[in-house]
Amino acid sequence: MNDSRRIKDLLYEQVARIGKAASSPKRLELIELLCQGEKTVDTLAREAAISMKLASAHLRELRSARLVETEKRGKYVIYRIANRAVADFWVGIRSLAEDRLVELRMVIEQMVSHPKELAPQDRDSLVRMARKGDVMVLDVRPAEEFLAAHLPFARSIPIGELKLRLSELPKGKTVVAYCRGPYCLMARDAVELLRKKGYEAVWLPEGVAEWGMVPVR
Amino acid sequence: MNDSRRIKDLLYEQVARIGKAASSPKRLELIELLCQGEKTVDTLAREAAISMKLASAHLRELRSARLVETEKRGKYVIYRIANRAVADFWVGIRSLAEDRLVELRMVIEQMVSHPKELAPQDRDSLVRMARKGDVMVLDVRPAEEFLAAHLPFARSIPIGELKLRLSELPKGKTVVAYCRGPYCLMARDAVELLRKKGYEAVWLPEGVAEWGMVPVR
DNA sequence: AGATTAGTCTAACGATTATTAGATTGTTAC
DNA sequence: GTAACAATCTAATAATCGTTAGACTAATCT
Questions:
Q1: Which helix (H) or strand (E) holds B39?
Q2: List of residues 6+ apart from A47 with CB closer than 8 A
Q3: Does B2 reach chain A within 8 Å, measured CB to CB?
Q4: What's the rounded Cα separation, in Å, for the pair A109 and B7?
Q5: DSSP run (H or E) holding B124
Q6: Which of A125, B7, B29, B205 has its CA 20 to 30 Å from the CA of residue B117?
Q7: For the residues B145-150, what does the mean pLDDT come to?
Q8: Is the per-residue pLDDT at B115 higher than 80?
């Protein structure tokens, strides 16, 4: 084995550390959750539906690949994404997966039962309409995530409070609901509820990560 | 376990297939090689310095993640990258790794012994100078890779033939040598040789993948 | 036809990884 | 002080992965 070969092997080995971090479904889910804002271990565990021990182990892996950072605050340990590049990577690997894997596209189709309930994907015109008040952009994520970052002109009503706060919504306008991104089903469920109650609602299957508005630092 | 959870798990599981494919150093090296153009299994094995059996096993993994495609031509099986998005993913994960991992930056620094031997990274002005003939862009990869795709105005002299074909190079002009990308050391070695022989040569640590010129189909 | 070459499949080994349980360390609340 | 909580560490298990060897297929060469 010559010298160049040894150096090369070292290089690819380092890049593979990132790939390895991204090779577990739960770790990817944790990255997406952290794209919404910093969170404690047990918040992450609850939202990813795993035990705290397992969450802690996965977060340890993500930290050793330097994709997330931690800070101790009182008795809590707060995890956050290292920087914007990590969020872009998540959006990128997901889009490659959707491009290459038919199986994934099939699961997504199964998810979106009625294509008419989807918001048009043109960001500029959505922002223009929201500014003028022609539509209402509704953020149904937990309040802390809304505070960390949200889409322009969005209003916050967490999905759990939606049923009780229907009066805050305009009957005439279209409500554009969004949450953590295309793999998060809160907004989809919100749209279903709103339509049942007679509102005109569509699902925007994007979030702050897709819009490049991830909160960091 | 509820229904949404099951769907979510399926989604992240699919994306993780891409991450898993990218979690092995040798697989990443194979992807980079395939970014230079289609290749047979034993060419890939030779260039990645592994056995054909191992190459075949890794390629099988890459194919099951739908990142590469195959075609049988006579007694050879030809592998190629599925599309441009795969090359972009490789460039992307590498750049994230360089951003996040100090260890990787340290290996790279060790590689570039003399920073003066590096070409300036402004693509537009490099192309302009090459068009006017102020510099000579030299592709030192194997001839087939040059044929599959190359940087604008580049000339091909494979690294192995360089010593015998020095007369084809201009003494007065700067030679800008490139190869497969920053982790390929052929161009670096070429620059070292040329400088010893009295030529003015610099290393462009980029290739067709970085320039978005990957050959596909 | 027989020999050669390219490549895959299967099985098997050891080395990693995922996950869980149990013990442990800090921190806060009382 | 003690109790409760957040989180990690260690150890142990089962599951998966990387790698190699051996048998096998399919195409080419003579």
A1: strand B39-40
A2: A33, A39
A3: no
A4: 11
A5: helix B123-132
A6: B29
A7: 97
A8: no
